[in-house]
Design goal:
By secondary structure, this protein is mostly beta strands. The protein is built from one helix and nine strands. The chain has one domain. It is elongated and about 55 Å long. The N and C termini lie far apart (42 Å).
């Protein structure tokens, strides 16, 4: 009896989580909130001439999925970690609360967040900009919303470096 119940609970959890890898993480917007890591990768950014570690987290609010209905809401955050030549790791992030409904071709973003922390003391953050933009693929398929954040770092000798980060969520709740 216990084994069947355990398998049923485990199966339900697998269906709920889907393609999301479940690892606990603290998101930049809240010190006490546990989030699910959706993806984590390291890549070489040619503009920055450095490796950047990218992490996308998700904090679900509501999710319903079956053969005809993908509806949900939650908070997605994307953060990048950039390592300065001094070895200091600066983190910059962007995110928002999202609501989506694939049956009704609906996606909406609100309460955007963005920021930078752990920059070296010799670096100033200037020219910050955050935008939300809506679009759709191929004129009539799958709508999406982008939340973008950009800024420049400025050091004491007067040189600047451009940084940007963007998160995209579609009406199916897919994130990139």
């Amino acid at each position: 009896m216990f084994t069947k119940r355990f398998i049923a609970i485990l199966f339900s959890m697998v269906l709920f989580i889907g393609n999301v890898s479940a690892f606990a993480s603290t998101s930049p917007n809240s010190e006490n909130t546990e989030a699910i890591i959706v993806s984590e990768r390291t890549y070489y950014d040619e503009d920055l001439e450095a490796e950047v570690r990218e992490v996308i987290t998700y904090e679900p609010v509501y999710e319903k999925s079956n053969n005809r209905n993908i509806v949900g809401s939650g908070h997605y955050t994307k953060s990048n970690t950039y390592t300065w030549m001094s070895g200091e790791e600066m983190v910059y992030y962007v995110g928002a609360d999202f609501e989506w409904n694939d049956d009704e071709n609906y996606i909406y973003a609100y309460n955007p967040i963005s920021g930078v922390y752990n920059q070296p003391a010799s670096i100033a953050i200037i020219n910050t900009d955050r935008n939300i933009s809506y679009g759709q693929y191929f004129f009539f398929f799958n709508r999406y919303v982008d939340v973008d954040f950009s800024f420049q770092s400025y050091n004491m000798i007067g040189s600047t470096k451009d940084f940007s980060i963007s998160i995209r969520v579609s009406q199916t709740g897919s994130v990139s």
